[in-house]
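Long-time lurker. I teach an intro course on protein structure, and each term I like to show students one example going from raw sequence to a predicted 3D structure in token notation. This year I'd like something fresh instead of my usual example. Would anyone be willing to generate the tokens for the chain below so I can use it in lecture? Attribution to the forum is fine with me.
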Amino acid sequence: MSAIALARGPVARQALVLVAGNPNSGKSTLFNALSGARTRVANYPGVTIDRRSATVALPDGRSVELTDLPGTYSLSARSREEQIAVESLLGRGPRRPDAILVVADATSLARGLYLTLEILEIGRPVVIALNMADEADRDGIAIDTERLEHLTGARVVRTVASRGTGLEALRTALASAIEQGTAPLAPAVERTPDMAADLAELEAEILSDRLMDRPEDARVWAQWLLLSLDHEATDEFTGIPASLRQTVQRIHHRAAEAGRNLDLEIISARYRVVDALMASVCRAPETPRRSWTDRVDAVLTHRIGGALAFAAVMMVVFQALFSWSEPAIAVIEDTMAAAQSAVSGVLPPGPLNSLLVDGVIAGVGNVVVFVPQIALLFLFIGLLEDLGYLARAAFVIDRVMRAVGLHGRAFVPMLSGFSCAVPAVMATRTLENRTDRLLTMLVLPLTSCSARLPVYVLVTATVFAPGSRVGLLSAGAVALFSMYALSVVAALTAAAVLRRTVLKGPVPTLMLELPPYRLPVMSVLLRGVWQRVRTFLVDAGTVILALTIVLWALLSYPKSADIAEQAGRDRAVVSSMSLPGDARAARLAEIDSHASGAQLRYSVAGRLGRMMEPVIAPLGFDWRIGVGILGAFAAREVFVGTLGIVFDISNADETNEPLREVLRAATWPDGSPLMTPLAGVSLMVFFVLACQCMSTVAVVRRESGTWRWPLFMVAYMTVLAYAGSLTVYQVGRAFGWGL
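-- Reply from a regular --
Happy to contribute to a lecture. Here you go:
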């Protein structure tokens, strides 16, 4: 056996190729074209940022691991994603790359060359893919690839990723680069003596502290530190010793005292090389024609026309999330109901039956029911981004978003939050800066999602008499509109406050590229949608399922043997009576409903509801409403069904007239009515402002990577909801409104 092992020799390590490039360069499309359907998705260590990789076969018979890095314009980071890209290129991750594939947009070569020059300085074999070469030819842009290879030392391949053009030549170039293992000789960047001294000081500290082993890596990382730690979001960056941060601050302070702009010096020196390269290898038309992109942009970025187009597009997206997903959601709900009925029919009543039906199957349903909306949302986001419209929409709406401290790109998550906060939180991934993502996530649950609507419908139909009006409008319509208006005001106000306190920082400046309009590659788009859905099911879904089972236990236990025995005796009495079949079934259902309500009151949740009553009574709620609020943490729409159990109404929903009648008849111990119009408005205000959705909490936990932020979100929204409801009820009582 050992002889065979010796004959085979050691197993060759699979080479690692990193794929780097600017956003909108077609990098991910090229990665997908090379990898096919063999993509693996994981997270970078310690963060929730996707890491896509695949095993790709090369013409020489070897296979390499291809990893798609987050898009970046340069090796100076403004986000955690860009830091990951930089550190992976520098080998500060688990492995040093054997080669680097740089994807550059042939129609915007200068921007791609800036990043390419930085990567060349790392000293690893480099292959440049001039992507979208067909569009460059169409625009009359001629690029001398042989000259570019000669000046950079890197292999250059023309590609059209969306059509698969140039892929074999690219694989051959990668195989050659890995086989030779020689790094290109990067074009020299001339630096002033002062700038060279600043970099040398930082490089020496990096090498002396053994943070980098190679001088080339230390030089590149020193430039990254000088450019990246000179802005407000540096708290996002990890793994940087305090001594290095202090050195960077000292160098910047010294340069400022001398009247120097260190960032400008570093960037300008490299752009002088880029300009020289462009003059040597690229020839563009002297009088570029006005493209159809420019003509479309004249409308879509216009102050009025752009706003109207934005409203129309968002209306379609919102309609899709709110209505088009309903058939799929209904199928999922029916399937879960059928599974619950099947299990109930097989297993006898008891703890196992209840666990599977009300815990496990209900928990799975609480996860899967979000899939249609998540898939549709990411389909639309991907479609709009690939088409090139998402950047235009962010430009149009940025002025409004900036007024409250939100990023221009936050508009899609905020609007989709009116349908469901779960996919909306996941949509914050389109924001580059972690602070902007956190801020948007923390205020998203304040937008009135569709799950709140059953609560609004039940309460308005209960507390406002049919035909009651406010002016020309019905009282229910005014109340419903007011709740949605309150949610918008609350979300924007919370964003403004959090931006100036907990997530303090400057109002984000929107810097974006308006890419040309392009047709999406549907296979790539659909693969991306599936990866997002799978991430939700695997990561957030497990937390939601666990929380559902915990909540089921709180609502189900402990059980009272006395209540169960009494229900059994009552069922025996009814069964012995001579009654028509329908009447007997109705009486038995009434007994079961009464027993369920009594057991709920006896459970941990029921006892918590009674303990809560002194706290929630100033809001106009008694312990029964308190139990409904606890049950609503599973999902807000559960509030209606929980009230049905508490008030002994079977099969209760928001349109159930018996539930409305029993709520109207409910009283406090002193005989005063419980559900007055004022109490109803107070309850709706509480639901507008409170975070009562464990699915949202689980997704925020997943996206933020810590329990700190979801717990903070629940805490501040609970305080806000209590204060808002208390103010409404007590001020209303003082003035005698709605009693």
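Some talking points for your students: The chain has a mean pLDDT of 80. Residues 48 and 705 are 6 Å apart (CA to CA).
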